[in-house]
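(Protein data)
===
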Amino acid sequence: MFKNILVATDGSEYSQSAVRYAIKLAKECNAKLTAIYVINVRGEFGLFRALFKNADKVLENEAKKILFQVKDLGEKHGVKVDVVFRKGIPSNEILKLAEEIKADLIVMGSRGLSGIERVLVGSVTEKVIANAKCPVLVVNRYV
């Protein structure tokens, strides 16, 4: 069914659910799985980067740690996972990579922003859903 799956992760509870589901799906479909982590150059990460001298290194190390946890989990379940780390606007980078690797499915967690933040910036998931050229599977909770 699916041959090339992209899963977006940020280490949150919802993205971890998406990762577990994407691994299961990739195994069932014998699909290639790619995981992406994007350091957000805007918002709270942008502020963190502006305030702390070594912020980029700290954020990169955390991103790589999360990606390699995804890779290890995939291998534990017999699924090879390619990992990609980028800096930018998360929705844009996810969509770019989906096109680059010719993903036929994007898997993401649902993590709702609330109040004024959602009105002003929307969620990464909403932006990907609205602009993806392939189906997007949103995982709420998966054990």
